[in-house]
Amino acid sequence: MKPARLLWLALLPPLAACNRSASQVAAPITRTPAATVSATDAAKPFRPPPESAIPDDDFGKQVALGRQIFMEPGRYAKAYVGNSLSCENCHLDAGRLAHSAPLWGAYPMYPAYRSKNHHVNTFAERLQGCFRYSMNGNAPPLGDPVLVALESYAYWMSKGEPVGAAPPGHGYLKLPKPRLAPDYARGETIFKRDCALCHGGNGQGQQVAGHTVFPPLWGPQSFNWGAGMEQINNAAGFIKANMPLGQGNTLTDQDAWDVAYFMDAHERPQDPRFNGSISTTRAAYHDTSDSLYGSTVNGHVLGQGTTWP
Ligand code: HEC
Ligand code: HEC
C-alpha cells in the first residue's frame, strides 16, 4: 500500500467500528462469502514473477517504465490522461491481483475479437481503449513509447503462461444475475456503510497534496461513460472481489449489484463516442440493461456528462 494511503487510514477510526449502524448491529448480518467463484476460477491463479526479477537490461528498462506508467499514468503518460485515476486503481497490486483483471490474465488472450468495436484487437489497441475511456484521455498512437512500455510490462509478467488459454483469475468475477433488480436506495445505504469512509460521501475520493489517495467513483475526475466500469455487471464483479479494500468477498452478491448500480447511476464525463444525442448514443453503444446511460434515475437523465456537479 502507498505510504500516503497508510497515513490516511491510520487517521481514520477502525473500519469495523464506524461502518456499522446501530440497526445493523442489532439485526443479524447475513453476509455470505463468495459462493460465486466458478470451478475454473477456483483453480490456482498464475503467480507472476516478482518485481525484483525485472532484468537489468534495455528490455528491463521498458518493463520498469511500463510499471511506472501503470502506477502513475498522470505522471508518466500525462499527455494521454484526462482524470486522476491510475491503472492500478482498477487492476490492483500493480496489475498482479487475480480477479481484478490482472495483466497476466490479459496479455496471453490477445489478439482478440471485441464486440465493443467489432474487430480483432491487438493488445496495444486494447491498451489504447483504457486511455480513451477508463482514463478519460486520448489513445496514444500505435508504436508510442507509452504503449511499448506497458506492453513490455504485461508481456514480462506473463512469462511461462500458455497462449490463448484464459488463465484462472483472469478478468473480473462474473456474478450471477441478482435475485432482486439492483436498487439505488439499497445501494446508497451500502455505499454510506461500506464505501464513503474512503471514497468520500460524495464519491469524489480523497486527495492529499494533489495526490489521489482514494480514487473518485464518479464525477469529472473519474472514468467516463464509455469505460468498462460503467457497466453494472463489471462494476459488481470488481466490487465483490475487491471492495471494501482489504475486505474482498465480504459483501453479498446482492449488495455488490446494488452498490454498483448506485455508483453507476451518477454523472461522469461524456462517452467520447457521443454522437449528438443521448438516446442515439445509447442505442449505438449502451443498448444493454447493464448500462444506465440514457436512463432516468431520480428524475435525472444520465449521460449528460458535462453537467457536473
Ligand atoms: C476505472 C477502472 C479502470 C481503470 C482506471 C483502468 N482500467 Fe483497464 N479495465 C477496466 C475494466 C472494467 C476492464 C474490463 C472491461 C471489459 O471486460 O469490458 C479493463 C480491461 C483492461 C484490460 C484487458 C483485460 C482483459 O482481461 O482482457 C487491460 C489490458 C487493461 N484494462 C489495462 C489498463 C491500463 C493499462 C490502464 C491504465 C492506462 C487501465 N486499464 C485503467 C477498468 C479500468
Ligand atoms: C479502506 C478504503 C476503501 C474502502 C472502504 C472502499 N474502497 Fe474502493 N478503493 C480503495 C482504493 C485505495 C482503491 C484503489 C486501489 C489501488 O489503487 O490499489 C479503490 C478502488 C475502487 C474502485 C476502482 C477505481 C475507481 O475509482 O473507480 C471502485 C469502483 C471502488 N473502489 C468501489 C468501492 C465500493 C463500491 C466500496 C464499498 C463497497 C469501496 N470501494 C470501499 C479504497 C477503499
UniProtKB/TrEMBL annotation:
Record keyword Transport present: no
Extent of the signal sequence: 1-22
Sequence segments annotated as region (Disordered): 34-58
Classification via Gene3D superfamilies: Cytochrome c-like domain
InterPro entries: Cyt_c-like_dom (IPR009056), Cyt_c-like_dom_sf (IPR036909), Cytochrome_c-type_DH (IPR051459)
Record-annotated Cytochrome c domain positions: 182-267
Record keywords: Heme, Iron, Metal-binding, Signal
Name of the molecule in the record: C-type cytochrome
